[in-house]
């Protein structure tokens, strides 16, 4: 007979009341997420596999749309007192979640209160530092973390006589010219352009996106990414666009088909596109580290993560949080994390999961799939390369997208667009600071 955990009353009391043990249902735990398509199926598998390990709790994953839609839905649900236990929030929503007074149940507190052991030291520093308080307390559970890499078409490089993947932006331009001469339609494209070309470009070159340690040290921060290095980089991209060295293909992952179809020989975007590229590309491909400008930095610093973490929301029965805590332990286990990493291209969030992947020979069989991990941990993060934590940054990404698209269309110079983006962005920062004083 199954041993159900009787939340209300004792076994005897329930039987006397006429309610049999078999009628007791597992406590349902709602998990709202933003993983569509194949990754949504993988999320469902993780939930069902956990549910099969014990009878007391049932994780119910619910797809709520893209990252922005999922976070917005969760905040609205909390106000209506209909919030889920767990919500997946992308990294730029961190400051907004931190400011949601009384809504968040910090992961370390929740694990401790639930009596579940929690060893913070097993998590990759580059991953958890993004989600820690100034005191080092972890606010949310890392789940799907990635970083942008340089994807390249090995067959195109071979045909064009490009010996190795480019390390500098100058080499990116040179390789692009060669593949164009070999009959390809474009040299390179990129997606999530604020994340790749401003946030990660800045971290990679160890320059700040804003003051106050990119917002980690306080709300009274201002944007500073309208600097010479960023302006120079974007001006070069715009110039290359005139010769098809660069072709713009959309804000998020819209430009993926430009790479997988063989149109563009290189693509700068998340390591988490590994599963999709492996499935769609009919050519040999590889991953390399992001390019850099030697005129800005002698050697690259480190890249920063994207992706999302799982935030626990308050307002539920304390007993249900024991189930949440057990699920978090399961989710972080080496076996689950190694599987998730190998299937998706997201980085393993723990050292044991990374070591297991190595032991299983995954990197030997799939060269380059550890590029993201090496890039994130290339050097000890500095205040410029830890990440970004700005209020209203979800809206700010829209502002940056608009201004960058004005560059690609020729409506603005890179200098004017970045100055305008900073001016508009600082208004959003002041609005957030005022609302959260």
List keywords for this structure.
437 residues, alpha/beta, D-Maltodextrin-Binding Protein, domain 2, 2 domains, four-stranded mixed beta sheet, 44% helix, 12% strand, disordered N terminus
Give the SSE map.
Elements: H1 11-16, E1 27-33, H2 37-51, E2 57-63, H3 67-79, E3 86-90, H4 94-98, H5 107-113, H6 125-128, E4 141-146, E5 148-153, H7 154-160, H8 169-181, E6 186-190, H9 193-204, H10 211-214, H11 228-241, H12 256-260, E7 264-270, H13 274-280, E8 285-288, E9 306-312, H14 318-331, H15 334-344, H16 351-359, H17 362-365, H18 371-376, H19 393-408, H20 414-435
Strand content: 5-15%
With strands numbered from the N-terminus, the spatial order across the biggest sheet is 2-1-3-9-4
Query: Which homologous superfamily in CATH is the superfamily of the largest domain?
Result: Periplasmic binding protein-like II
Q: Which consecutive residue ranges, at least 5 long each, have pLDDT under 50?
A: 1-23
CA radius of gyration is 23 Å
Label the CATH architecture of the largest domain: 3-Layer(aba) Sandwich
CATH class of the largest domain: Alpha Beta
Instruction: Look at the structure and give the mean pLDDT.
Output: 93
Helicity range? 40-55%
Instruction: Please give the oligomerization state of what you see.
Output: single chain
In total, the number of strands is 9
Number of helices: 20
Name the structural class: alpha/beta
Distance between termini? Answer: 55 Å
Number of spatially distinct domains: 2
Q: List the helices and strands in order.
A: HEHEHEHHHEEHHEHHHHEHEEHHHHHHH
């Amino acid at each position: 007979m199954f041993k159900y955990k009787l939340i209300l009353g004792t076994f005897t009391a329930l039987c006397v009341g006429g309610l049999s043990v078999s009628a007791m249902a597992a406590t349902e735990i709602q998990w709202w997420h933003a993983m569509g398509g194949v990754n949504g199926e993988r999320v469902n598998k993780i939930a069902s596999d956990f549910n099969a390990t014990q009878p007391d709790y049932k994780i119910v994953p619910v797809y709520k749309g893209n990252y922005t839609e999922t976070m917005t839905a969760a905040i609205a649900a909390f106000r209506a007192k209909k919030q889920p236990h767990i919500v997946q929030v992308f990294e730029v929503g961190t400051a907004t979640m931190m400011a949601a007074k009384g809504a968040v149940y910090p992961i370390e507190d929740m694990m401790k209160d639930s009596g579940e052991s929690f060893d913070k030291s097993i998590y990759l520093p580059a991953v958890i530092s993004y989600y820690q308080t100034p005191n080092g307390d972890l606010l949310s559970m890392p789940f799907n973390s990635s970083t942008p890499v340089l994807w390249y078409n090995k067959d195109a490089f071979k045909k064009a006589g490009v010996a190795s993947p480019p390390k500098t932006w100058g080499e990116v331009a040179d390789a692009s010219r060669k593949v164009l001469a070999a009959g390809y339609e474009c040299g390179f494209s990129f997606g999530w352009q604020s994340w790749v070309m401003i946030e990660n470009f800045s971290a990679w070159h160890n320059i700040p996106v804003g003051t106050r340690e990119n917002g980690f040290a306080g709300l009274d921060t201002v944007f500073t990414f309208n600097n010479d290095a960023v302006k120079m980089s974007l001006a070069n991209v715009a110039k290359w666009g005139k010769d098809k060295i660069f072709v713009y293909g959309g804000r998020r992952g819209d430009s993926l088909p430009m790479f997988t179809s063989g149109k563009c020989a290189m693509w700068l975007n998340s390591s988490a596109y590994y599963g999709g590229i492996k499935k769609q590309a009919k050519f040999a491909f590889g991953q390399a580290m992001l390019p850099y400008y030697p005129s800005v930095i002698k050697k690259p610093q480190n890249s920063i993560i994207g992706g999302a973490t799982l935030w626990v929301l308050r307002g539920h029965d304390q007993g249900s949080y024991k189930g949440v805590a057990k699920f978090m332990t399961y989710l972080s286990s080496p076996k689950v994390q190694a599987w998730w990493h190998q299937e998706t291209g997201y980085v393993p969030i723990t050292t044991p999961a990374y070591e297991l992947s190595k032991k299983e020979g995954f990197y030997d069989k799939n060269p380059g799939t550890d590029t993201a991990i090496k890039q994130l941990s290339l050097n000890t993060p500095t205040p410029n390369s830890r990440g970004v934590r700005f209020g209203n940054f979800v809206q700010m990404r829209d502002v940056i997208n608009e201004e960058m698209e004005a560059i690609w269309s020729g409506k603005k110079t890179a200098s004017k667009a970045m100055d305008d983006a900073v001016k508009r962005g600082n208004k959003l920062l002041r609005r957030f600071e005022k609302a959260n004083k």
